[in-house]
Design brief:
Helix content: over 70%
Radius of gyration: 35 Å
Structural class: mainly alpha
Order of helices and strands: HHHHHEEHHH
Number of helices: 8
Largest sheet: 2 strands, antiparallel
Number of strands: 2
Strand content: under 5%
Number of domains: 2
Distance between the termini: 66 Å
Length: 279
């Protein structure tokens, strides 16, 4: 169970870690200056309790600068040994050393944390840019498969067992790719962790989804023209319905989370046209 003193210590350190680098430096400098002034007061009013040896014949300015110098080397734990604390100044030097080390440790930990966050942000950026590329590349493959089915249906006026299997693969592949899009926007205004999708990639992703749905619509139109009873093929039809449902779910959230206010009317329209073909 934590004591009140340990809780206070954790609270103080937590408050320090929330400060900027500039504020931490000012705190460190303020502590150093304050202790330097205390050493100066001891040297003036109680020389036996002040740091020494210091030239007693020096001016007040020189004495103060020497005390400030001693404060700096104490705060940095340098300890040249040219000036040593005596009496009460020993206690002050111990307190100052611990205080300065705590502030310095927080400063260093923030610097290390910043470096880690920067490295992590680069990893996130590369990971999600690769995800965008993977989705677009996958949708391109889907369109090629649609073209192959369109060509086959036009020539044969039917789909055989392998053709129906390929059609299901097309639908399943499309589903898996569409399901990945929300992960790019799992946060406020297009952010996930450290990543924000840029306008060019979002535009290309938008275009890939629209072109893929357009190709699926064209494929179904060719099936109709070729008298292929694709509506009676229950397995593929159910998969197609899931694609339509996914677009209905994804598009509004996509529009809301997009940092660039994209218009998804074209995707919604082509999805509605595919829905009408089923009904």
């Amino acid at each position: 169970m934590q004591t009140n003193s340990s809780r206070r210590s954790i609270y103080i350190i937590d408050k320090l870690t929330q400060q900027s680098y500039g504020v931490l430096f000012l705190i460190w400098f303020g502590v150093t200056f304050t202790f330097g002034f205390l050493y100066f007061l001891l040297l003036i009013y109680s020389p036996e309790n002040g740091p020494s040896p210091l030239d007693q014949g020096s001016t007040f300015l020189v004495k103060f600068l020497n005390c400030l110098y001693f404060s700096v080397i104490t705060a940095t734990s340098t300890g040249y040994g040219d000036i040593a604390p005596h009496g009460i100044s020993r206690f002050l030097a111990s307190v100052q050393s611990v205080t300065a080390l705590v502030v310095f440790a927080v400063f260093v930990s923030k610097l290390v944390s910043y470096k880690q966050e920067f490295a992590l942000s680069e990893v996130h950026k590369l990971t999600f840019e690769e995800m965008v590329h993977h989705i677009r590349e996958g949708l391109y493959i889907v369109r090629k498969d649609c073209n192959r089915l369109i060509e086959y249906a036009t020539q044969k006026q039917k789909l055989e067992t392998t053709g129906w299997a390929d059609l299901k693969i097309v639908y399943r592949h499309t589903q898996s790719l569409l399901q990945k899009i929300p992960h790019l926007y799992a946060g406020s205004k297009g952010k996930m962790g450290f990543y924000t999708i840029d306008r060019d990639r979002e535009t290309l992703l938008h275009e890939s989804v629209f072109r893929t749905l357009t190709r699926i619509h064209k494929m179904l139109t060719v099936f109709e023209q070729s008298k292929i009873e694709w509506k009676q093929h229950t397995e593929s039809l159910e998969l197609l319905k899931k694609i339509i449902y996914l677009i209905d779910v994804i598009t509004p959230n996509w529009k809301q989370e997009s940092p660039y206010k994209e218009d998804f009317g074209d995707i919604t329209k082509i999805n509605e046209e595919i829905r009408k073909m089923i009904s």
